[in-house]
Structure formats: C-alpha cells, structure tokens
Amino acid sequence: MTTVTAPQPVKPMQPVKPAAPKARSLAVGGTLALILATALAPMAWGTTYAVTTEFLPADHPMFAALLRSLPGGLLLLLVTRVLPRGEWWWKAAVLGVLNIGAFYPLLFLTAELLPGGVAATLGAVQPLIVAGLAVGVLRERPSLWRIGWAVAGAVGVGLVVIGPAAGLGLAGVGAGLLGTASMALGVVLTKHWKAPAGVTPVVMTGWQLTAGGLFLLPLTVLFEGAPPQIDGQAVLGYLWLGTVGGFIAHTLWLRGIRRLPVTASALLILLSPLVAAVIGAFVLGEYFTAWQLMGLVLALGALVAGQLSPRRRTV
Fold this sequence. Notes:
Blueprint (H helix, E strand, L loop, with lengths): L20 H25 L2 H7 L6 H20 L7 H26 L2 H7 L3 H12 L6 H18 L8 H24 L7 H23 L8 H28 L2 H6 L3 H12 L7 H16 L10
C-alpha cells in the first residue's frame, strides 16, 4: 500500500525589511564621532603660530620641525615594533617628506615671516588643492558641492584673519603655499596608496614622523644647528608641538582621512586658521571686527556643509 503525502503549500516570500532606524542612527553617530576626532588634529595645528612666536627661539624653523617629528616617530616605532615591508619603505619615506619633512619647516618659516593670521590663511586653500589632486590622482568625480564650499571657506577664513594692515611678504607667502601644497599631495597619496593590511594609524604615524625627522636631521645640522639658548618656555613649546601637535594629532588625522572622503576631510583644515585667529583674539589681545565675525560664520558653515552630501534623485 502506497502512501501519498500531500505537497506542503509554499510560503510567500517575505518582503525585505529596510534597515532599522536604530542601525542607521548608529552609523550616523559613528561618522559624526569620526569627524569630530579628526577635527582635533587641525585644531591642534592651529596653535602652532602662537606657540612659535611666543615660546620658541626665533630663526630656527628646521630645528623646531626636527624636534616635532623625530623623537615622537622613534617613540612610536619603539612601542609598535612594526617596520615597513617591500614597497612601503619608499612609500613611507615619500609620505614622511611630504607631510612632515617639507611641511613642518615651511610651516614654522611661514609663522616667523608672516603675521599669524596671514600665515594661517594660506592653509585655507588646501581643500581646493586636494580637490584638484583627487580628480587627477584618485580619479574621483569632481564634487561641485564640496569645491564650492571649499571656496566659501577660504573666503571666510580670509575675512577672519586678514586685516587691512596684514603684511604679505613674498618669501613668507611662497613658503606657506609650498607647505600647503606639500601636505595636500601627502593627503591625496595617503588615500591613494592606502595602508597595508593590519597597519594601524599609530604605526603609519610612526613611519612618517621617523622618515620626515631623518630627512630633516642632516639639513638641520648642516644649515641651521640648535638655538644658542633653550629656556623653560621653549621646552614647553617643543613638548606641546611634539606630542599634542605631533604624533597625537597625526594619528587622529591619518585615522580620519583613511575613512572619510578626501575632499571632506581636507575641509577640516579650515579649523587650523580659525583656531589661530581665536587664539589671537582671546590670548594675544586681538579683536574681531564685524567683517571678521561674518567670515567666521561663513567658514564654519562651509566646514559643516562640506561634510554633507546633497541627496541625489534615483530612478
């Protein structure tokens, strides 16, 4: 006797549920936290101008850059104990020269040759340089949204930190633009090459600081030397620039540009001149005019808007 089993009815396919609002809000919160942590780096770099003019010995930009890079880089190498492999020996050297070895001394030289506000303004053009390099190197489609806000941010920073009595020395302006272009290229190449698997931002920071410091060491010995006298204020200034403004800031910066869009992260550089202007107003006795306040609002608005992406219509 044969038993026939009736076929089981097929259950209709359940519709795919959209992503839960909670998961979406967690993703947005994580991105916001990453942006805020990355923003701490240019804020720390914005203190360079005041520290250089108020604490450090004059006419020694390469020595200041050396102390800001090599000790911190060697310390990170000692802690992580990870060295580059293969092609990353020369890639780390190139990034170290662009982001550290060339940028640092040009930054200190600009701070010595120009008023702090003018020197800081030159860094505001970096998002525009990064946007152009991203198209050529990363093959990214140009984002008119972010490029437009980068222009607005540069204008806003200019209104904040350049007054009618600003001194524009040719040597200082040239040094500032070269330093800005050097770091902009370093940012784009960091995004283009990407870090090897398993290499953390702390390890990458140690590689770059050490490479930049070793590049600066013979140049400092040959052409500049150490200051004749280093007092207690100078020691505090070097410590601040080497720790908070050195390996801590660079670790946060490399962590951010690894995960954020390159043009959006470059817009955070606008915080550096804004912090320099605020320090000048509240610490060095400078005051904001109505035009400067308008520029401050414009620059901050551009910085926030540049982190957003306008919604595109889908068919």
